[in-house]
Write a structure and sequence with these properties.
Transcription Regulator spoIIAA; five-stranded mixed β-sheet; globular
Length: 124
């Protein structure tokens, strides 16, 4: 189920599953893509206590614009009593997240199922 009607987007897909908003990013996440992604992340972090999973599994390139939008979305989720977690296995993206210490701020999982299972266990 989609969160809302969306025009075809090359960098993003959103849906809800098991009570979580899932945002799948793909391709090159740079300043151009960020302009497309920010409104979607704002929408999924708007409700009270949002539970958001951002998948970076299909991301080929990730720069400081991507870091900025993740930090912004996390702050918005935190302000509303929610949480934002990441799914990522790409070694270079993980290295960037680790270097800037975002792996301390974000729980990072290897698969969507793992993120969903851990999020559900922590909600109990």
């Amino acid at each position: 189920m989609r969160l809302s009607p969306q025009p075809a987007r090359s960098h993003i897909r959103t849906y809800r599953t098991r009570g979580h908003a899932v945002v799948e990013l793909r391709g090159e996440i740079d300043i151009v893509a960020a302009d497309e992604i920010i409104p979607v992340l704002d929408t999924v972090t708007e409700p009270a206590a949002p539970s958001v999973i951002v998948s970076l599994l299909d991301v080929d390139f990730f720069d400081c614009s991507g870091l900025r939008l993740l930090c912004r979305a996390r702050r918005r989720a935190d302000e509303r009593g929610g949480q934002l977690v990441l799914v990522c296995t790409h070694p270079l993206t993980l290295r960037i997240l680790h270097i800037v210490r975002l792996t301390v701020m974000f729980p990072v999982y290897e698969t969507l199922d793992e993120a969903l299972d851990r999020r559900e266990a922590s909600a109990c």
